[in-house]
Design a protein that fits this description.
Largest sheet: 8 strands, mixed
Helix content: 25-40%
CATH class of the largest domain: Alpha Beta
Strand content: 15-25%
CATH superfamily of the largest domain: Mur-like, catalytic domain
Number of domains: 2
Radius of gyration: 21 Å
Low-confidence stretches: 440-465
Amino acid sequence: MTLGLEETFSYLESLYRRPIRPPAEVGLERIRHLLRRLDNPHERFPTVHITGTCGKGSTATMVAGILGEAGYRTGVFRSPHLQSYLERIAVDGSPVSAKGWMAAFERVRPVADAMERGDDGWSLGRPSLFEFVWSMAATHFAASEVDAGVIEVGVGGRLSATNVLRPEVAVLTNVSLEHTRLLGDTETAIAGEKAAIVKSGSSAVTAAEQPPVLEVIEERCRSVGADLWRVGSDVVYRIDAADRDGQRAAIRTPLREHPDCFIRLLGRHQVRNAATAVGAVDLLVGRGWRIDSQAVRRGLEAAGFPGRFEVMSERPPVVLDGARNQVSAEALRQTLDDLFPTHDIVLVVGALADKDAASIVAPLIPRVRSAVVTLPPFEGRTTDPAELLGLLRDRVETVRFEPDPTRAWTVARSSLRPNDLLLVTGSLYLVGCIRQLVPGEEIGGQASADDGLAMAARTPVGTRP
Protein backbone atom coordinates (compact mmCIF):
# COMPACT_ATOMS: atom_id res chain seq x y z
CA MET A 1 0.00 0.00 0.00
CA THR A 2 1.36 3.39 -1.00
CA LEU A 3 1.48 5.87 1.87
CA GLY A 4 1.05 9.62 1.81
CA LEU A 5 3.76 11.97 3.06
CA GLU A 6 2.30 12.34 6.55
CA GLU A 7 1.76 8.60 6.74
CA THR A 8 5.45 7.98 6.05
CA PHE A 9 6.27 10.12 9.10
CA SER A 10 3.83 8.07 11.19
CA TYR A 11 5.40 4.87 9.86
CA LEU A 12 8.85 6.04 10.93
CA GLU A 13 7.58 7.03 14.37
CA SER A 14 6.09 3.55 14.75
CA LEU A 15 9.58 2.12 14.25
CA TYR A 16 10.75 4.03 17.32
CA ARG A 17 7.96 2.66 19.48
CA ARG A 18 8.37 -1.01 18.55
CA PRO A 19 11.00 -3.38 20.04
CA ILE A 20 14.22 -3.81 18.12
CA ARG A 21 17.53 -5.55 18.62
CA PRO A 22 19.99 -2.87 19.79
CA PRO A 23 23.19 -1.88 17.94
CA ALA A 24 25.30 -3.47 20.69
CA GLU A 25 23.93 -6.85 19.55
CA VAL A 26 23.80 -6.44 15.78
CA GLY A 27 26.69 -4.04 15.21
CA LEU A 28 26.66 -2.69 11.65
CA GLU A 29 25.44 -5.90 10.04
CA ARG A 30 21.81 -4.79 9.84
CA ILE A 31 22.58 -1.51 8.05
CA ARG A 32 25.08 -3.26 5.77
CA HIS A 33 22.42 -5.80 4.80
CA LEU A 34 19.89 -3.03 4.09
CA LEU A 35 22.33 -1.02 1.99
CA ARG A 36 23.47 -4.12 0.07
CA ARG A 37 19.87 -4.75 -0.93
CA LEU A 38 19.75 -1.16 -2.18
CA ASP A 39 22.93 -1.68 -4.25
CA ASN A 40 25.16 0.19 -1.78
CA PRO A 41 24.19 3.76 -2.67
CA HIS A 42 26.53 5.15 0.02
CA GLU A 43 29.53 4.00 -2.02
CA ARG A 44 28.67 6.20 -5.00
CA PHE A 45 29.85 9.54 -3.58
CA PRO A 46 32.80 10.70 -1.43
CA THR A 47 32.00 11.90 2.07
CA VAL A 48 32.95 14.10 4.99
CA HIS A 49 31.81 12.22 8.12
CA ILE A 50 31.12 14.31 11.24
CA THR A 51 30.76 13.27 14.87
CA GLY A 52 31.05 15.09 18.19
CA THR A 53 29.11 15.96 21.32
CA CYS A 54 28.19 19.46 20.08
CA GLY A 55 28.62 21.42 16.88
CA LYS A 56 28.01 18.63 14.36
CA GLY A 57 25.14 20.43 12.67
CA SER A 58 26.82 23.82 12.46
CA THR A 59 30.07 22.32 11.20
CA ALA A 60 28.23 20.22 8.62
CA THR A 61 26.33 23.29 7.43
CA MET A 62 29.54 25.26 6.95
CA VAL A 63 31.40 22.42 5.21
CA ALA A 64 28.47 21.89 2.85
CA GLY A 65 28.16 25.62 2.19
CA ILE A 66 31.82 25.88 1.23
CA LEU A 67 31.63 22.83 -1.04
CA GLY A 68 28.56 24.27 -2.71
CA GLU A 69 30.28 27.61 -3.31
CA ALA A 70 33.17 25.69 -4.89
CA GLY A 71 30.75 24.16 -7.39
CA TYR A 72 30.28 20.72 -5.86
CA ARG A 73 26.76 19.30 -5.74
CA THR A 74 26.52 18.43 -2.07
CA GLY A 75 24.16 16.29 -0.02
CA VAL A 76 23.76 16.70 3.75
CA PHE A 77 22.34 14.11 6.11
CA ARG A 78 21.61 15.33 9.62
CA SER A 79 19.78 14.25 12.76
CA PRO A 80 17.70 15.30 14.61
CA HIS A 81 15.51 17.68 12.65
CA LEU A 82 14.07 20.94 13.88
CA GLN A 83 10.59 21.08 12.34
CA SER A 84 10.30 18.49 9.58
CA TYR A 85 11.71 15.10 8.67
CA LEU A 86 12.48 16.56 5.24
CA GLU A 87 15.28 18.61 6.81
CA ARG A 88 17.28 15.45 7.49
CA ILE A 89 18.06 15.02 3.79
CA ALA A 90 19.17 18.03 1.75
CA VAL A 91 20.94 18.68 -1.55
CA ASP A 92 22.58 22.01 -2.35
CA GLY A 93 21.09 23.62 0.75
CA SER A 94 17.46 22.66 0.08
CA PRO A 95 15.55 20.00 2.02
CA VAL A 96 14.44 17.03 -0.03
CA SER A 97 11.14 17.64 -1.82
CA ALA A 98 8.05 15.64 -0.91
CA LYS A 99 8.44 13.82 -4.25
CA GLY A 100 12.09 13.01 -3.56
CA TRP A 101 11.29 11.87 -0.03
CA MET A 102 8.54 9.55 -1.27
CA ALA A 103 10.76 8.06 -3.97
CA ALA A 104 13.47 7.24 -1.43
CA PHE A 105 10.94 5.93 1.10
CA GLU A 106 9.33 3.61 -1.45
CA ARG A 107 12.75 2.32 -2.43
CA VAL A 108 13.73 1.47 1.14
CA ARG A 109 10.46 0.25 2.62
CA PRO A 110 10.14 -3.08 0.72
CA VAL A 111 13.63 -4.05 1.86
CA ALA A 112 12.84 -3.06 5.45
CA ASP A 113 9.61 -5.07 5.37
CA ALA A 114 11.46 -8.10 4.02
CA MET A 115 13.98 -7.80 6.84
CA GLU A 116 11.16 -7.68 9.39
CA ARG A 117 9.54 -10.78 7.88
CA GLY A 118 12.87 -12.62 7.96
CA ASP A 119 12.95 -13.34 4.23
CA ASP A 120 15.83 -15.44 2.88
CA GLY A 121 16.89 -16.51 6.37
CA TRP A 122 17.53 -12.97 7.65
CA SER A 123 17.47 -13.07 11.45
CA LEU A 124 18.44 -9.63 12.77
CA GLY A 125 15.05 -8.02 12.31
CA ARG A 126 13.90 -4.71 10.89
CA PRO A 127 15.98 -1.54 10.63
CA SER A 128 15.74 1.23 13.21
CA LEU A 129 14.28 4.64 12.40
CA PHE A 130 17.79 6.07 12.02
CA GLU A 131 18.94 3.20 9.78
CA PHE A 132 15.85 3.61 7.62
CA VAL A 133 16.25 7.36 7.12
CA TRP A 134 20.02 7.14 6.59
CA SER A 135 19.38 4.55 3.86
CA MET A 136 16.85 6.93 2.32
CA ALA A 137 19.43 9.71 2.38
CA ALA A 138 22.10 7.56 0.72
CA THR A 139 19.56 6.47 -1.91
CA HIS A 140 18.50 10.06 -2.61
CA PHE A 141 22.09 11.31 -2.81
CA ALA A 142 23.04 8.58 -5.25
CA ALA A 143 19.98 9.29 -7.41
CA SER A 144 20.78 13.02 -7.29
CA GLU A 145 24.36 12.30 -8.40
CA VAL A 146 25.91 14.42 -5.68
CA ASP A 147 29.62 15.15 -5.85
CA ALA A 148 29.97 14.95 -2.06
CA GLY A 149 28.03 13.91 1.00
CA VAL A 150 28.37 15.65 4.37
CA ILE A 151 27.10 13.07 6.82
CA GLU A 152 26.38 13.54 10.52
CA VAL A 153 26.69 10.63 12.92
CA GLY A 154 23.55 9.98 14.95
CA VAL A 155 24.94 8.85 18.32
CA GLY A 156 28.57 8.01 19.03
CA GLY A 157 30.39 6.72 16.00
CA ARG A 158 31.50 3.10 16.14
CA LEU A 159 27.98 1.68 16.11
CA SER A 160 26.28 4.49 14.20
CA ALA A 161 24.63 3.27 11.03
CA THR A 162 26.64 5.92 9.16
CA ASN A 163 29.89 4.17 10.12
CA VAL A 164 29.65 2.02 7.00
CA LEU A 165 31.30 5.00 5.30
CA ARG A 166 34.94 5.26 4.39
CA PRO A 167 35.17 9.04 4.39
CA GLU A 168 37.67 11.30 2.69
CA VAL A 169 37.73 13.37 5.90
CA ALA A 170 36.51 12.46 9.38
CA VAL A 171 35.58 15.33 11.70
CA LEU A 172 35.41 15.06 15.50
CA THR A 173 34.10 18.39 16.74
CA ASN A 174 34.52 17.78 20.48
CA VAL A 175 33.93 15.19 23.19
CA SER A 176 32.13 15.44 26.52
CA LEU A 177 29.84 13.19 28.54
CA GLU A 178 26.67 12.20 26.69
CA HIS A 179 24.60 9.05 26.17
CA THR A 180 26.73 7.39 28.83
CA ARG A 181 24.64 4.20 28.88
CA LEU A 182 25.45 3.66 25.23
CA LEU A 183 28.90 5.17 24.86
CA GLY A 184 30.61 4.78 28.24
CA ASP A 185 30.84 6.84 31.40
CA THR A 186 34.16 8.58 30.76
CA GLU A 187 35.25 11.08 28.15
CA THR A 188 38.01 8.77 26.95
CA ALA A 189 35.56 5.90 26.43
CA ILE A 190 33.27 8.20 24.46
CA ALA A 191 36.25 9.48 22.47
CA GLY A 192 37.07 5.91 21.49
CA GLU A 193 33.53 5.40 20.18
CA LYS A 194 33.63 8.62 18.17
CA ALA A 195 37.17 8.15 16.84
CA ALA A 196 36.05 4.91 15.18
CA ILE A 197 34.76 6.94 12.21
CA VAL A 198 38.41 7.59 11.21
CA LYS A 199 39.35 4.93 8.67
CA SER A 200 42.41 3.86 6.77
CA GLY A 201 42.80 6.24 3.85
CA SER A 202 40.99 9.07 5.64
CA SER A 203 42.26 12.39 6.92
CA ALA A 204 40.89 13.81 10.18
CA VAL A 205 40.39 17.07 12.04
CA THR A 206 39.29 17.58 15.62
CA ALA A 207 38.48 20.53 17.88
CA ALA A 208 38.63 18.39 21.03
CA GLU A 209 40.80 20.00 23.70
CA GLN A 210 41.21 17.62 26.66
CA PRO A 211 44.64 15.89 26.56
CA PRO A 212 43.28 12.40 27.41
CA VAL A 213 40.64 12.72 24.69
CA LEU A 214 43.21 13.93 22.17
CA GLU A 215 45.43 10.96 23.03
CA VAL A 216 42.60 8.57 22.14
CA ILE A 217 41.93 10.35 18.84
CA GLU A 218 45.63 10.55 17.98
CA GLU A 219 46.09 6.85 18.69
CA ARG A 220 43.18 5.95 16.41
CA CYS A 221 44.66 8.07 13.62
CA ARG A 222 48.09 6.49 14.10
CA SER A 223 46.62 2.99 14.05
CA VAL A 224 44.84 3.50 10.71
CA GLY A 225 47.47 5.79 9.14
CA ALA A 226 45.27 8.90 8.97
CA ASP A 227 46.65 12.44 9.01
CA LEU A 228 45.22 14.50 11.90
CA TRP A 229 44.85 18.26 12.27
CA ARG A 230 44.05 19.70 15.71
CA VAL A 231 42.13 22.96 16.06
CA GLY A 232 44.13 25.16 18.40
CA SER A 233 47.54 24.00 17.19
CA ASP A 234 47.49 22.87 13.54
CA VAL A 235 44.39 24.94 12.74
CA VAL A 236 44.34 28.30 14.50
CA TYR A 237 41.85 31.15 14.50
CA ARG A 238 41.42 34.68 15.83
CA ILE A 239 38.17 36.56 16.42
CA ASP A 240 38.60 40.15 15.22
CA ALA A 241 35.09 41.52 15.75
CA ALA A 242 31.67 40.30 16.87
CA ASP A 243 28.18 41.72 17.20
CA ARG A 244 24.59 40.59 16.71
CA ASP A 245 25.05 40.49 12.93
CA GLY A 246 27.92 38.00 13.00
CA GLN A 247 31.65 37.62 13.61
CA ARG A 248 34.83 38.39 11.72
CA ALA A 249 37.70 36.00 12.14
CA ALA A 250 41.00 34.91 10.63
CA ILE A 251 41.63 31.18 10.22
CA ARG A 252 44.91 29.49 9.32
CA THR A 253 45.46 25.83 8.48
CA PRO A 254 48.73 24.05 7.67
CA LEU A 255 47.79 24.50 4.00
CA ARG A 256 46.86 28.21 3.75
CA GLU A 257 45.50 31.33 5.43
CA HIS A 258 41.90 32.58 5.38
CA PRO A 259 41.85 36.21 6.57
CA ASP A 260 38.73 38.30 7.11
CA CYS A 261 36.13 35.53 7.24
CA PHE A 262 32.59 36.61 8.16
CA ILE A 263 30.62 34.01 10.13
CA ARG A 264 26.90 34.69 10.36
CA LEU A 265 26.32 32.08 13.07
CA LEU A 266 26.50 33.74 16.49
CA GLY A 267 28.68 32.79 19.45
CA ARG A 268 32.41 32.30 19.99
CA HIS A 269 31.91 28.53 19.74
CA GLN A 270 30.73 28.99 16.16
CA VAL A 271 34.09 30.45 15.20
CA ARG A 272 35.71 27.28 16.55
CA ASN A 273 33.20 25.26 14.53
CA ALA A 274 34.10 27.38 11.49
CA ALA A 275 37.80 26.66 12.02
CA THR A 276 36.98 22.96 12.21
CA ALA A 277 34.96 23.18 8.99
CA VAL A 278 37.76 25.05 7.21
CA GLY A 279 40.23 22.45 8.45
CA ALA A 280 38.09 19.72 6.91
CA VAL A 281 37.84 21.62 3.63
CA ASP A 282 41.59 22.26 3.43
CA LEU A 283 42.23 18.58 4.08
CA LEU A 284 40.06 17.91 1.03
CA VAL A 285 42.14 20.43 -0.94
CA GLY A 286 45.23 18.52 0.09
CA ARG A 287 43.60 15.42 -1.38
CA GLY A 288 43.07 17.11 -4.74
CA TRP A 289 39.71 18.87 -4.36
CA ARG A 290 39.46 22.32 -5.99
CA ILE A 291 38.17 24.76 -3.38
CA ASP A 292 39.56 28.28 -3.53
CA SER A 293 39.69 30.75 -0.66
CA GLN A 294 36.80 32.79 -2.08
CA ALA A 295 34.56 29.71 -1.84
CA VAL A 296 35.60 29.32 1.79
CA ARG A 297 34.70 32.92 2.62
CA ARG A 298 31.40 32.82 0.71
CA GLY A 299 30.41 29.51 2.27
CA LEU A 300 31.06 30.69 5.82
CA GLU A 301 29.23 33.96 5.27
CA ALA A 302 26.16 32.26 3.80
CA ALA A 303 25.89 29.50 6.39
CA GLY A 304 22.82 29.81 8.59
CA PHE A 305 21.37 27.21 10.91
CA PRO A 306 17.86 27.69 12.34
CA GLY A 307 17.45 27.06 16.04
CA ARG A 308 21.06 27.74 17.01
CA PHE A 309 21.19 31.10 18.80
CA GLU A 310 18.61 32.33 16.33
CA VAL A 311 17.56 35.90 17.11
CA MET A 312 13.94 36.01 15.97
CA SER A 313 13.27 39.55 17.16
CA GLU A 314 15.23 42.49 18.56
CA ARG A 315 12.42 44.44 20.23
CA PRO A 316 11.95 42.58 22.50
CA PRO A 317 14.85 40.16 22.01
CA VAL A 318 13.61 36.63 21.30
CA VAL A 319 16.28 33.93 21.06
CA LEU A 320 15.79 30.27 20.13
CA ASP A 321 18.63 27.88 20.91
CA GLY A 322 18.56 24.09 20.97
CA ALA A 323 21.10 23.70 23.80
CA ARG A 324 20.53 20.25 25.26
CA ASN A 325 23.61 19.44 27.32
CA GLN A 326 26.10 21.18 29.58
CA VAL A 327 28.59 22.16 26.88
CA SER A 328 25.97 23.72 24.63
CA ALA A 329 24.26 25.43 27.59
CA GLU A 330 27.57 26.98 28.65
CA ALA A 331 28.13 28.21 25.08
CA LEU A 332 24.62 29.66 25.10
CA ARG A 333 25.29 31.51 28.36
CA GLN A 334 28.57 32.89 27.01
CA THR A 335 26.84 34.15 23.86
CA LEU A 336 24.06 35.77 25.89
CA ASP A 337 26.69 37.51 28.04
CA ASP A 338 28.53 38.71 24.95
CA LEU A 339 25.56 39.94 22.92
CA PHE A 340 22.83 40.72 25.48
CA PRO A 341 24.79 41.45 28.66
CA THR A 342 22.21 43.64 30.44
CA HIS A 343 18.96 41.83 29.75
CA ASP A 344 17.02 39.73 32.22
CA ILE A 345 15.89 36.39 30.80
CA VAL A 346 12.38 35.02 30.62
CA LEU A 347 13.00 31.33 30.02
CA VAL A 348 10.85 28.74 28.27
CA VAL A 349 12.50 25.38 28.87
CA GLY A 350 11.82 21.69 28.42
CA ALA A 351 14.08 18.68 28.01
CA LEU A 352 14.01 15.06 26.94
CA ALA A 353 14.31 12.29 29.49
CA ASP A 354 17.79 11.20 28.36
CA LYS A 355 19.24 14.68 28.93
CA ASP A 356 20.71 16.07 32.14
CA ALA A 357 18.22 18.83 32.94
CA ALA A 358 20.37 20.25 35.73
CA SER A 359 23.36 20.76 33.45
CA ILE A 360 21.18 22.57 30.91
CA VAL A 361 19.65 25.13 33.28
CA ALA A 362 22.52 25.63 35.75
CA PRO A 363 24.60 27.98 33.54
CA LEU A 364 21.51 30.06 32.74
CA ILE A 365 19.93 30.47 36.19
CA PRO A 366 21.94 33.53 37.28
CA ARG A 367 20.48 35.47 34.33
CA VAL A 368 16.89 34.18 34.60
CA ARG A 369 14.16 36.39 36.07
CA SER A 370 11.16 34.23 35.19
CA ALA A 371 10.74 30.70 33.83
CA VAL A 372 8.01 28.62 32.23
CA VAL A 373 8.68 24.87 32.23
CA THR A 374 6.98 22.93 29.44
CA LEU A 375 7.08 19.57 27.65
CA PRO A 376 8.84 19.18 24.30
CA PRO A 377 6.53 17.60 21.69
CA PHE A 378 8.07 14.15 21.97
CA GLU A 379 5.48 11.75 23.34
CA GLY A 380 6.77 9.42 26.04
CA ARG A 381 10.30 10.77 26.18
CA THR A 382 10.15 14.06 28.08
CA THR A 383 11.92 14.64 31.36
CA ASP A 384 9.83 14.84 34.53
CA PRO A 385 8.87 18.54 34.75
CA ALA A 386 9.17 18.31 38.53
CA GLU A 387 12.93 18.04 38.07
CA LEU A 388 13.18 21.34 36.20
CA LEU A 389 10.67 23.01 38.51
CA GLY A 390 12.70 21.93 41.53
CA LEU A 391 15.91 23.28 40.02
CA LEU A 392 14.35 26.68 39.29
CA ARG A 393 11.87 27.40 42.08
CA ASP A 394 14.24 28.54 44.81
CA ARG A 395 16.48 30.54 42.48
CA VAL A 396 14.15 32.32 40.07
CA GLU A 397 11.64 35.08 40.80
CA THR A 398 8.66 33.42 39.07
CA VAL A 399 8.33 29.80 37.93
CA ARG A 400 5.31 28.02 36.48
CA PHE A 401 4.48 24.87 34.56
CA GLU A 402 2.56 24.88 31.29
CA PRO A 403 2.63 21.42 29.66
CA ASP A 404 1.57 22.71 26.23
CA PRO A 405 4.46 24.50 24.45
CA THR A 406 2.11 26.90 22.65
CA ARG A 407 0.57 27.95 25.95
CA ALA A 408 4.03 28.23 27.53
CA TRP A 409 5.13 30.56 24.73
CA THR A 410 2.03 32.72 25.17
CA VAL A 411 2.44 32.94 28.95
CA ALA A 412 6.14 33.81 28.71
CA ARG A 413 5.58 36.44 26.03
CA SER A 414 2.80 38.11 28.01
CA SER A 415 5.07 38.44 31.06
CA LEU A 416 7.86 40.36 29.31
CA ARG A 417 9.12 43.59 30.86
CA PRO A 418 11.04 46.34 28.99
CA ASN A 419 14.50 44.92 29.78
CA ASP A 420 13.64 41.23 29.26
CA LEU A 421 14.91 38.74 26.70
CA LEU A 422 12.73 35.72 25.89
CA LEU A 423 14.81 32.56 25.55
CA VAL A 424 13.53 29.16 24.41
CA THR A 425 15.93 26.27 25.00
CA GLY A 426 16.51 22.74 26.32
CA SER A 427 15.40 20.73 23.29
CA LEU A 428 15.53 21.13 19.52
CA TYR A 429 12.03 19.67 19.33
CA LEU A 430 10.75 22.38 21.68
CA VAL A 431 12.57 25.06 19.69
CA GLY A 432 11.15 23.68 16.44
CA CYS A 433 7.63 23.71 17.82
CA ILE A 434 7.80 27.28 19.09
CA ARG A 435 9.67 28.50 16.01
CA GLN A 436 6.51 27.90 14.01
CA LEU A 437 4.66 30.34 16.25
CA VAL A 438 7.06 33.24 15.75
CA PRO A 439 7.13 34.10 12.00
CA GLY A 440 4.58 36.73 11.11
CA GLU A 441 3.75 37.63 14.70
CA GLU A 442 4.20 41.20 15.87
CA ILE A 443 6.87 40.68 18.48
CA GLY A 444 9.05 43.63 17.66
CA GLY A 445 9.05 44.19 13.94
CA GLN A 446 11.61 41.63 12.74
CA ALA A 447 10.16 38.55 11.12
CA SER A 448 12.04 35.29 11.16
CA ALA A 449 14.63 34.73 8.51
CA ASP A 450 12.68 31.59 7.67
CA ASP A 451 14.21 29.39 5.01
CA GLY A 452 11.06 27.65 3.91
CA LEU A 453 11.33 24.75 6.31
CA ALA A 454 8.11 25.76 8.03
CA MET A 455 6.26 25.13 4.79
CA ALA A 456 7.04 21.44 5.22
CA ALA A 457 6.95 21.56 9.00
CA ARG A 458 5.56 18.85 11.15
CA THR A 459 6.05 18.97 14.88
CA PRO A 460 7.52 15.54 15.73
CA VAL A 461 5.66 13.32 18.15
CA GLY A 462 7.44 10.19 19.26
CA THR A 463 10.33 10.68 16.85
CA ARG A 464 13.84 9.57 17.58
CA PRO A 465 16.94 11.63 16.86
